[in-house]
Design a protein that fits this description.
The structure is a single chain. This protein is α/β, with parallel strands linked by helices and about 250 residues long. It has one domain (about 5-245): CNF1/YfiH-like putative cysteine hydrolases. The protein has helices at about 10-15, 45-60, 130-135, 135-150, 170-175, 195-205, 230; strands spanning about 5, 20-25, 65-70, 80, 85-90, 90-95, 100-105, 110-115, 120-125, 155-160, 170, 185, 190, 210-215, 240-245. The strands form three sheets. It has a six-stranded mixed sheet, with no helix packed on it. It has a six-stranded mixed sheet with strand order 4-6-9-8-10-14. α4 (about 135-150) runs parallel beside α6 (about 195-205).
Length: about 250
């Protein structure tokens, strides 16, 4: 079994009250290609998934009963989490409570994590093409403004590993939904840049350029490091990004 690798965010490192980690593929007890798979919805052995989660959460220093999970459905649904719980059917969660760690599952879609050090609010967003098109990130920031009166200029944001535009092919019916700034055509096929779209949603919402970190890692390209549904299909595992205030 290879060593477990956790991706950290440089921009969150300056906040000692924030625990953040993004899991990868190596270091799990599951057989190839699942490895450190953290999802029970991909055909992996449930006992292995439980062991993998324990490995990851223990490395972060948190208990699984302190985590808010969401069954992601490629929507623009945003939920407030008053305490650690499980949401059926949403793709963004936020909280102002300490020791409530928010989980975002990923295998190509764009994960975005937010922290306002002034209002002490965090959010975790799962943004696939549907969520990106429906501006789930913009909606989440609007929820933070409406519920807590935050100033978006105070937000710190991390856009995590996700599929790059060179490998995110979509049908014409999807491609034409996006501004030309976020799509390109190659050999008659459409490709989307979801990271760029989500970055612009942050900027357009009032987040400062120097308060945004964008991971350069592509899930599809990093075969040994990251899970990718587009690359591995039904045999792809899932990664978690976790953020919480202590």
């Amino acid at each position: 079994m290879s060593d477990l690798i956790i991706i950290r965010s440089e921009i969150f490192e300056k906040f000692p009250e924030i625990i953040f980690g993004f899991s990868t593929k190596p270091g799990g007890v599951s057989t190839e290609p699942y490895c450190l798979n953290l999802s029970n919805a991909v055909g992996d052995d449930p006992d292995n998934v439980s062991a993998n989660r324990n490995l990851f959460f223990r490395r972060l220093g948190i208990d699984e009963n302190r985590i808010t999970f969401q069954k992601q459905i490629h929507s623009s649904v945003v939920n407030y989490s008053p305490h650690p719980c499980h949401f059926e059917g949403c793709d963004a969660i936020f909280t102002d409570k300490k020791n409530n760690f928010l989980a975002v599952g990923v295998a190509d879609c764009i994960p975005v994590f937010l922290y306002d050090p002034v209002s002490k609010v965090i959010a975790g967003i799962h943004s696939g093409w549907k969520g990106t098109h429906e501006k789930i990130l913009t909606r989440t920031i609007s929820e933070l403004i409406n519920k807590f009166g935050i100033d978006p200029a105070n937000l710190t944001a991390y856009i995590g590993p996700g599929i790059c535009s060179d490998h995110y092919e979509v049908g014409e019916e999807v491609g034409i939904l996006f501004n030309e700034k976020y799509r390109h055509r190659s050999n008659g096929k459409y490709f989307l840049d979801l990271k760029k779209d989500n970055y612009d949603q942050l900027i357009n919402s009032g987040v400062k350029h120097d308060s945004i970190e964008v991971s350069g890692l592509c899930t599809f390209c990093e075969k040994d490091l990251l899970h990718s549904y587009r690359r591995d299909g039904t045999l792809s595992g899932r990664m978690f990004g976790i953020i919480g205030i202590v």
